[in-house]
Amino acid sequence: MQAKYCYRFPHPSVTSDCVVFAFDGKELFVLLIERGNEPYKGYWAFPGGFMEIDEPAENTAVRELKEETGLSISKIQQLQAFSAVHRDPRERVVSIIFYSLMKFKDRNVSGCDDATKAQWFKINNLPKLAFDHDKAFIMIKHRLKTKLQFEPEDTEYHEDPFSSEEINKIISIL
CB burial class (10 A; 0-12, 13-18, 19+) of residue 18? Predict the structure, then answer.
């Protein structure tokens, strides 16, 4: 039996976005997708999309990342929700942003699903981003830098942990 939800009052849609950083030993990159649909068709954005009624926000972020870029990751951390009233011209949308940091080793990606392209960009050379992703990216960089400075032991997101030297280099880039 499928659940049916009926509400007397309007309610927002919820999306999850995934900001993936990759470090190659010298430079720090972020993964973006080129949007294939309106709004902001042709603009770059974080991989993400609308939450299914029966899935947690974290699962949405991981699912959308895989669908739009082909990249599979399992460990992400929640940053915060972005809920400005007019942040999405389609409807009232609240986005929950997640992020991850990994080593840049054979991280091939390609645009899939509703993403025309997927590409790694140096973090200090990003194109104009869709929605409020420019604002969100500033906050995410700050959060990652703070986490690396004060909780470096909590950066083992993947099978290949970062050395102290690598962490210090990432901090200096951020």
Answer: buried
